[in-house]
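Hey, I was hoping to borrow your eyes for a little while. No rush at all, and the record is pasted right below.
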Amino acid sequence: MNSSNSNNGESNNGKSSIFDSLNQDLGLYFLELARLGASKAPTEMEEDQEEAPKELNTINSSGGFLVVAPDKLSVKYTSVSLHGHDVGVVQADKPAPVKRLLYYFEIYVKDAGAKGQIAIGFTNEGFKMRRQPGWEVNSCGYHGDDGLLYRGQGKGDAFGPTYTTGDTVGGGINYASQEFFFTKNGAIVGTVCKEREMKGRLFPTIAVHSQNEEVHVNFGQKKFAFDLKEYEAQERLKQQMTIEKISLPPNISYGLVRSYLLHYGYEDTLNSFDLASKSTIPPIYIAQENGFDEQDIVYALNQRKTIRQLIRNGETDAAINKLRDWYPQIVQDDKSATCFLLHCQKFIELVRVGALEEAVKYGRIELAKFFGLPGFDDLVQDCVALLAYERPQESSVGYLLEESQRDVVADTVNAMILSTNPNMKHMQGCLQSHLERLLRQLTACCLERRTTNGDQGEAFYLHRVLSSGRDMKC
């Protein structure tokens, strides 16, 4: 995917004014993308950064009725239960993580005690710690003595089998489907809708309620009896199958791919694509939609291909010379964002091949004029900082030496050439292909869905979705 989609489809709020007039420099859009390269962060580690439960909370528990072992992973009911408020309840030390597809934990029933009134479930932070999970609002619990599922009231619903000494029982949350699920001895017992009324963070919770009941909890410190990875794979497959069932107009994917290749000037790939498709898929064209026509992106196809190849090969000088010959208006303003990115790339290429003295001379002539200018100064400083490192690729400004930086510059020039087309009706059509706009819409929909679920579930990463779809077809 090209640089114009490298921010994973998220919107550039506040940047729309760039496109309000034909007189605006479209290079400013790509200048912002170049700046994003400097702030790349391991956002996909979001799940790993979220703290998960590791032990039981010995502070917030009904300690008068139970004893928590020193390892904080076992509890035993040591009292004699006289009424419904004598429950021994204990939550995990942390709430269930929410930025993932599933959360799950298990208990092993070492001793069912006198009555087997053991429960597993989830409760919120303000839960009454002398009540069974599921008996109060904002809680859900699967109970061992009757096999009923309780959700916010004292009356349970038929759910699954009872469980007793020697059984392993698990409780989990499926954030994609917004459901609780429970297991017994490695098999799914059932699922139930996670009520939207359950507010706030939910804590894994266990309860014991009769003499000598004893359970051990597993927060993932050892292997689960239930195959969580397989269950997760099945859930992802369900999502993929739902997508596969969606009916699309014939050849729409062909049209989207073709328009992408046209937009970015991949002429050779386009010819090969058309040749391979000719015998099985009739050529189609995306109809004029939102003012865009295929002819707009066929414009200057060969020139755009040539200049893209030069920039991606590190031949920035040759690319600039071609622009002066073919589209002098693009490089006429030497202080435009487009010229700035080209000068930066020329400087970067000199550093890449070790021509440091030449880079210094070039920087003093071409980059110095951008010092102190709003919107340019930070990237100028990053470029110059490359000179300070013996191995600049490994430095904080090493992003400038990545192939993606060349793509940003190539995409800038591509958009600027498209903008010279007198038949181009909307300048925003120069920036992204139909495919990229579709993927951005997909991203926006997924983010909106996550928001409606209280920001619960996996963060959306476009490349992960595309990779998972490819893997499932293999």
Summary: The CA atoms of residues 144 and 163 lie 5 Å apart. Confidence is low (pLDDT under 50) at residues 4-23, 41-45, 288-292. The first helix runs from residue 27 to 38.
